[in-house]
Amino acid sequence: MERAQKRAATNGAKSPVPRSEEAGTALELLVHGVGGTTPEHMLDDPRTVRITGDDTAAVFRRADDADAESRPEDYRGKPVREAYVWCNLTSGNGSRALWLLLLPFMVVNLAHWMRPTTRGRRRTVRLYGLLVRLTGLTLTVLLVAGCCEVALDLAAWQCAGTRTCAERHSWLGFLSPVVSNEGWWSAPGRRLALAALVPAALTGLLWYLSQRTWSAYESQQPMSRAAEPDEESGRTALSRPGFWYGRRLVARLRAAHTAAGLLTVAAAVGTSAARHDHRSGGPVLLDILGRLLEASLVAGAAAVVWVVCRRGRSEHRLDRELDAHLVRRLPLATLVLLLLTAVYAGWERPGWESTGRLPGDMTFGTIALVQGLLVIALGVVAHLLHRTRPDARAAMRGLGGPAVAMLACALGGVMSGGVSQRVADWLDGTGTSIPGPPVLLTWQASVIPPLLLVLLVLCAWMGRRTWLLRRAEMASVEGDYPDEAKDTTRTRLIARARAMATLTDRAPLLIAVVSTATLLLGAAALVGAMTTGRTPGRAAHGTYAVVQGAADTAQALGSWLIGLGFILFVTWGRRAYKDPSARRTIGILWDVGTFWPRAAHPFAPPCYAERAVPDLTWRMATWTRATGGRLVISGHSQGSVLAAAAAWQLEPAVRKRVALLTYGSPLERLYGRWFPAHFGPGALSALHQDVDCWRNLHRPTDPIGGPVRLTGECGPEVDRDALRDPLAYGRTDDHPLPAPILGHSDYQEDPAFVEERRRLLDRLKPDAPVPAPRPQEDSGRSSA
Length: 784
Hints:
It is a single chain. The protein is mainly α. Among the domains are: 264 residues, Rossmann fold (3-Layer(aba) Sandwich); 145 residues, no CATH class. The longest helix has 38 residues. It is globular and about 95 Å long. Keywords: Membrane, Transmembrane, Transmembrane helix. This is Integral membrane protein.
């Protein structure tokens, strides 16, 4: 094996590589799907060597094939197989389980890429991106405000200022004016300044993670090339040279969001002291300093909004520049302002006592109102874009982005509210010693049970539809296996697998109902909190006892549910830190959710495609340039999405030397519906015209993959007829044991895969006649 590695290194460095027209060598590049696998499994050989790459992502070959280009006579009639392994980009070590806490940021980032298909209307497109970026900014403020609520309001202000609560929690004793006998830290402003270390540290951690993950994952530069003339036609943006390199925007947004978080902490610390100083009889100097502080906070907030609004992504070229020093120094300026605010709040103020709550109701109410208005405006813009070029297959008629943005806001509210509710219950053992979290968070907790009830009804309806579909599919299953002895149990299992696979197509309905209910119930909670200023149960006092009891029950149940949900969320992340199988499951979630670059939120989990797509592009371009040959890129599941994205990044002449084989592919079923501007019919049609040939395999039992619904020169359709699953209905000579229902996995075990792969590889042979496609009506039988 060491000899093979040395030969591969020598061959890849300077030794001449025979051109494929002379050598007849063909290349098959395999790309795995979600969850990952090993190169030994992909290449079906225990002896593999790394051709290029590192421990994070690399290309492997069989050890015997390491120097295949120097021995072309050994590979006549068969391809050289390579495997690109990228699973460590998402599901490597246990620390990445902490990315679960960044879920709302990831979801709002997805909303940016769900823009409807349109042609022209650049200003409207820019407005869409701007609204999503502003929504992402509110999520950062909401998360930091939730941390401030816990550390500053509940712990330092309420609990430390109350004898009963402070005596129960001895670790807060030095902050309590009663327990510590008016110690130095017992002044309200100093307590707030000390507690501000917690949300400030959280903001710094988010900044550090964003900076570190950018350096580790997304700093790989794509191949430099000129923009194609037709990239302005709106077919797809994934072929633009700078699409997979967003260094400038991520750095810009990171500075703005970090500054926003620090400004939120400074406002929580300084506004309470300023409000006390504005009262009549207070020191004039402190009153002036308080007003200057408030003006500085307003100016800082305006600067943050200006930075977020000023520019979006630069995709038409590789933007290697950074912004001016004013933008890059914005976090440092806000950090200095936070330190000055802490000094100002810690000034001695005789007679200042911590009573009631900090002004959290106004803060959380303003955030909720702004988020609702942004989501509504985003929906209007998305509708206008969809009307210019309607796409019947687009999810929710182009409103998928606003709906997902609404869910991101709801997730942020659940996380911040859940932590606040549970910490308040933990600190306030008797339930009467401290006022507790803001009223709005209590109202938001009371709408959780109705929302779950709506979700339960919807799931029951979908379950009934699936049951009816399973009954209808039983006749279809029997028709697909006409010569087999019928077994009702076997038929029911196959029909159930097919019916369950269709649930993916009902996801738009689920998202639409949940997001609409969330928007309406959230608006009701906001109105109730702002108009009454009391908890739901107290607001119903004096009306009907039934209404009051229902409100109290909803509030209590919602409080426990929201806290339980967050605890389960954290527990799952902790389990994933220790359990490799759970970590693998979470890695699959990131495989789907972090394909897109960070365009709306810099604290979202890193985009693995900004490493994987350049890797594949460089490998295909350099191999074809060195050998002059052609290759087949074979992608399963998410690997097919990476393969398509990499093919778009190639030069047009190189694309013509690439054949594409996809199986279990979500290109049209998921990406085409949810991301129509980038994977819509026009984009997939252009890809099919640009590559040498494209064939796609799918099964009716696959809940993820599906047809791409394109026609072309490779045959009547790019899609082969749906493959049989299972391969055999009962026991046969070829399958003496019951054949399993494969669903989304093991496409390579199907004879149809071998046939389509052979057809594509035959096209790579110099001067070889292209085999005619088999009739579509026979393709289903060949897979049995």
